[in-house]
């Protein structure tokens, strides 16, 4: 069988492993379901094309050589379904039909949407499992495994994803090693193909030339598989996980983000901070940064390098704050439990993240002796990687929890600036009206000031009125924090009126 032979003769060990794992999934599925009970969802895309040849190889190995004369598989025995759409590229459409002819595929063409098309098909045919070319980086792969039952609300069948763990590089290594035909669009700079309305060639493959028509390199030359979908027109993402404001700051501010009061919680992970052997710089710095964008830090905490401690703290904070920031405990060491804590708090497992692995590969290169796949374990199904060109590794966002990998104040400054750039516009870490503050000092005693101050707090519930002393004998400092300077001034005046004129002086 030519595919099996090409892989066996290749010296790409990674590809061999990916191939044998995928073929194993296919042969397991063919052992579990009869040939009438399986179908292949084929759309002429590169991932589907890989899967077609893996299925041919898998079927060949499943049946044994004696059933395929001279090691040649004449007809493709698995029912194939193609959802044809008017918005598909004509090149994709004709490639799909041509390939079906070349390999003798029995193709059911469905012209309705996926769900109702499958409902009709499954009523008519005994199909129980469908092979798909879904890969872990695809938006639809979230939460899937190699065998995943269809989602609630969908007709019931098993989704079989033999190439779930394949990377962009693996796909091209396979297609080129096996020298199989693929859709011509991939030689014109397209790297992932959706509809004609949402797909353009990947600009990272553009060849600058002086003529009017832009030219592109082939898809297999994309140096960085993470940017496979750069040719897809972006859908506007909603700021998932961001709750409505915790506190509303006045009647005329309801529809303006700038006046919303957002709250955050800051959690440090580090035994050393708790031992007192390392000074925590990041927590206070984060509080200042949040304050500078008009956010309120409702709480900071430092927890042990222990999964349960991290998870419990996140669980406590994530539902009562707009955002939760985590720092410390990020990396591949035994003490780096932050990702596991996040996963536990959200009740998901940790799974290798292919995209993150690519970043680590770029960063660590060949110096790494460990399994990068293991190092790139992130909470499954809830992780969003926030890329910024200035950061070597993306920031990790799991719903409203952001994991910062900074280890010192300089790194934090950089990550923070990138974070603001990345998330400031989508409502997730929106900059709101900054706080104004004023301070008064007084030599009045606590007893004298206590009651008037309590009354003042009731009069000005929109302000934070706090008191502290720098020493027991020194003056009392009264601080006023709020978003409306006029209200602060009014509070100050109201307090001063309650005492003799020289009782207070304003300080910076
Ligand atoms: C054979 C097949 C089975 C599918 N099964 C499911 C499913 O069980 N649950 C689901 O949410 N979507 C399912 N989908 C839909 C895909 O997850 C996804 O929405 C679809 O491929 C559209 O992707 P696009 O928005 O990138 O075009 C299925 C699609 C196909 C072709
Ligand atoms: N119109 C369709 N008809 C049949 N199957 C489809 C269709 N669209 C998607 N699929 C299934 O979903 C899988 C994932 O689709 P996806 O678009 O991510 O990959 P692809 O089209 O194979 O490659 P590419 O990422 O280059 O577009 C396909 O491999 C195929 O199994
Ligand atoms: Mg596609």
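^ structure tokens above, recovered residues below v
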């Amino acid at each position: 069988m030519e595919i099996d032979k090409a892989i066996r003769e290749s010296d790409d060990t990674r590809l061999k492993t990916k191939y044998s794992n995928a073929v194993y999934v296919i042969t397991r599925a063919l052992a579990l379901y009869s040939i009438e009970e399986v179908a292949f969802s084929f759309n002429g895309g590169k991932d589907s094309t890989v899967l077609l040849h893996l299925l041919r190889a898998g079927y060949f190995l499943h049946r044994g050589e004696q059933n395929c004369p001279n090691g040649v598989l004449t007809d493709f025995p698995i029912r194939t379904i193609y959802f044809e759409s008017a918005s598909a590229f004509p090149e994709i459409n004709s490639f799909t039909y041509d390939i079906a002819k070349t390999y003798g595929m029995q193709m059911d063409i469905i012209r309705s949407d996926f769900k109702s098309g499958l409902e009709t098909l499954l009523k008519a045919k005994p199909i129980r499992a469908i092979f798909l070319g879904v890969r872990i980086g695809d938006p639809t792969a979230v939460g899937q495994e190699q065998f995943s039952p269809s989602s609630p609300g969908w007709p019931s069948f098993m989704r079989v994803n033999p190439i779930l763990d394949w990377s962009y590089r693996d796909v091209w290594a396979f297609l080129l090693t096996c020298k199989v035909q693929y859709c011509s669009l991939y030689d014109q700079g397209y790297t992932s193909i959706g509809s004609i309305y949402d797909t353009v060639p990947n600009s990272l493959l553009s060849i600058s030339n002086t003529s009017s028509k832009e030219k592109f390199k082939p898809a297999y030359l994309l140096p960085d598989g993470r940017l496979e979908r750069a040719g897809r027109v972006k859908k506007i993402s909603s700021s998932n996980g961001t709750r409505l404001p915790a506190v509303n700051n006045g009647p005329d501010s309801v529809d303006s983000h700038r006046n919303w009061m957002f709250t955050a919680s800051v959690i440090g992970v580090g035994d050393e901070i708790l031992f007192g052997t390392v000074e925590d710089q990041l927590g206070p710095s984060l509080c200042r940064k949040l304050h500078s964008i008009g956010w309120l830090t409702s709480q900071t905490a430092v927890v042990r390098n222990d999964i349960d401690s991290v998870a419990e703290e996140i669980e406590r904070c994530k539902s009562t704050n707009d955002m939760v920031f985590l720092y410390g405990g990020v990396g591949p060491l035994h003490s780096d439990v932050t990702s596991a804590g996040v996963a536990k708090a959200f009740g998901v497992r940790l799974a290798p993240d292919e995209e993150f692995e690519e970043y680590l590969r770029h960063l660590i290169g060949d110096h790494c002796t460990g399994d990068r796949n293991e190092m790139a374990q992130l909470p499954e199904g809830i992780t969003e990687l926030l890329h910024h060109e200035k950061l070597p590794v993306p920031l990790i966002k799991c719903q409203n929890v952001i994991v910062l990998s900074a280890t010192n104040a300089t790194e934090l400054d950089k990550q923070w600036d990138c974070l603001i750039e990345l998330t400031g516009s989508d409502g997730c870490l929106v900059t709101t009206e900054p706080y104004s503050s004023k301070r008064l000092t007084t030599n009045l005693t606590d007893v004298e000031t206590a009651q008037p101050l309590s009354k003042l707090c009731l009069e000005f519930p929109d302000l934070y009125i706090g008191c502290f002393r720098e020493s027991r004998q020194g003056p009392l400092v009264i601080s006023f924090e709020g978003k409306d300077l006029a209200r602060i001034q009014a509070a100050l005046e109201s307090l001063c009126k309650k005492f003799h004129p020289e009782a207070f002086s304003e300080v910076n």
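The chain is about 35% helix and 20% strand.
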